[in-house]
Specification:
The chain is an alpha/beta fold and 472 residues long. It has a single domain, classed as Alpha-Beta Barrel (TIM Barrel), CATH 3.20.20. It is built from 15 helices and 19 strands. Strands 1, 2, 3, 4, 5, 16, 17, 18 and 19 form a nine-stranded mixed sheet that branches. The protein has an eight-stranded parallel sheet with strand order 6-9-10-11-12-13-14-15. The protein has a two-stranded antiparallel ribbon with strand order 7-8. α3 runs parallel beside α4, α4 packs across α7 and α7 packs parallel to α8. It binds dihydropyrimidine-2,4(1H,3H)-dione (DUC) and zinc ion (2 copies). The site of one zinc ion has 3 residues, from loops.
């Protein structure tokens, strides 16, 4: 089966140029002007449109068991919604319970993900430590294609890592040539602030951001960076939401340390006034961690993206519907943390990033796809429009508009944090390894079409870091 995307402008991480793109089977077979149409080829007219690498969302939580419930988008519905918005790969998280063997958790997540409609990889979270964890990190890395490990510095009495676990696991990552990643919030401080707020009678969603102020995130980001510096490992910090975290990254990078930063589409746009809305469902619908921040932080995050201190955009896609959020009606600490976004990230980044002149189209490709592929060792199979690469492509109409709404989105959630925003820049066609999964509003995602992506260890920046620090 072959498809010719004809007459579009290819945009990759470097530049834009007019070319046809021929897909044969699951791969890109040819790129060039006026390509011949082999017999039996389906032709998609991309006149006036852009042809870009499909988005990679490096941070999702499909069907995550969390805070007493389970995230409502599963690997099928969540990846299908991603395809509708131009995202063709995700990196999700295996999160073992403390004391649970890593391999057991990994197999569980692999089973859940078999229904995915788009390709997926896994980071594995380190939530406890003993010899078996040390051993299984090696097994996951060498046999199962896991080349990044996640550390939650928050969620005390659940999945939080203390400094001892961080140091052990970062050291093991260095031995393996794997990349450590962190959720940077000081869980001890969050725990204490939550308790104090509830004791003062502040039990509504407005307490959520009060219990997780920017300094709590800045402290953890800085601590993780300094631990990484002492041990000599590169580091990736997920969902940076505020100026103190950004400053910690900028300072470390300015000193030559290799630190990568991720920002969520939501944190670029939404401010903390949402938590003061008297409608519980609305306020609780925005409860995620780290929380949305006062306005000045959004401008700083855009600047961080432009300056190159932040490298990837993600969503932390983790859906909970209103009845699930209601678990925290009388106590904000019990509201399941999580918001959706996989379907809207690309449009939001295009509209507010490219549309405002903050990003060029190639910079858009870098921060929505190519950088994630390069940092997490999926490149050039993913993140590139190149002969031989997987045909994960989005045909993008930069002039079309749509209004985002929970009433029309494909995500399995009754709420949308971008509700009512009209965005310009729309995916008209999305290909997942050659399969046309989204065509002009028609979602043709196929359950189980997605494949697990094994990722190699090491890579250029891991090697460069070894030479720079002498570690490993
Ligand atoms: N933050 C969330 O909001 N949800 C899932 C996990 C996380 O760190
Ligand atoms: Zn997190
Ligand atoms: Zn997350």
């Amino acid at each position: 089966m072959s498809t010719l995307i004809r007459g579009g402008t290819v945009v990759d991480a470097e530049h834009s140029y007019r070319a046809d793109v021929l897909i044969a089977g699951e791969r890109i077979a040819a790129i060039g002007e006026d390509l011949e149409v082999p017999i039996g080829t389906e032709v998609i007219d991309a006149g006036g449109q852009l042809v870009m690498p499909g988005g990679i969302d490096p941070h999702t939580h499909m069907q995550l068991p969390f805070m007493g419930t389970v995230a409502s988008d599963d690997f099928y519905s969540g990846t299908a919604a991603g395809l509708a918005g131009g995202t063709t790969s995700i990196i999700d998280f295996v999160i073992p319970n403390p004391q649970q063997p890593l391999m057991e958790a990994f197999e569980t997540w692999r089973g859940w993900a078999e229904k995915a409609a788009a390709d997926y990889a896994f980071h594995v979270a380190i939530t406890w430590w003993d010899e078996s964890v040390h051993r299984d990190m090696g097994l996951l890395a060498s046999e199962h294609g896991v080349s990044s490990f996640k550390h939650f510095m928050a969620y005390k009495n659940a999945i939080m890592c203390d400094d001892e676990v961080l140091v052990n696991s970062f050291s093991r990552c260095i031995e393996l040539g794997a990349l450590p990643t962190v959720h940077a919030e000081n869980g001890e401080l969050v725990f204490r602030l939550q308790k104090a707020l509830v004791e003062r009678g502040i039990t509504g969603p407005e307490g959520h951001p009060m219990s997780r102020p920017p300094a709590v995130e800045g402290e953890a980001a800085n601590r993780a960076i300094r631990i990484a510096e002492v041990l000599g490992t590169p580091l990736y910090i997920v969902h940076n939401s505020c100026i103190p975290a950004l400053q910690a990254i900028a300072r470390a990078r300015g000193e030559g340390q290799r630190v990568f930063g991720e920002v969520l589409a939501g944190h670029l746009l939404i401010d903390d006034s949402v938590y003061r809305n008297p409608d519980f469902e609305f306020a609780a619908g925005h409860v995620m961690s780290p929380p949305f921040r006062p306005k000045e932080h959004q401008e700083a995050l855009w600047q961080g993206l432009q300056a190159g201190h932040l490298h990837t955009t993600a969503t932390d896609h983790c859906c909970f519907c209103a009845p699930q959020k209601a678990a925290g009606k009388d106590d904000f600490t019990k509201i399941p943390n999580g918001c959706a976004g996989i379907e809207d990230r690309m449009s939001v980044l295009w509209h507010y990033g490219v549309g405002s002149g903050r990003l060029t189209p190639s910079e858009f490709v870098r921060v929505t796809s190519t950088n994630a592929a390069q940092i997490f060792n999926l490149y050039p199979r993913k993140g590139a429009v190149a002969v031989g690469a997987d045909a994960d492509l989005v045909v993008w109409d930069p002039a079309a508009s749509r209004t985002i709404s929970a009433k029309t989105h494909h995500q399995n959630i009754d709420f949308n944090v971008f509700e009512g925003r009209t965005v310009t820049g729309v995916a008209t066609h999305t290909f997942s390894r050659g399969l046309l999964a989204w065509a002009n509003g028609d979602l043709r995602a196929v359950r189980g079409h997605g494949r697990y992506l094994k990722r190699p260890l090491g890579g250029d920046y891991v090697e460069a870091n070894r030479r720079r620090t002498g570690a490993g």
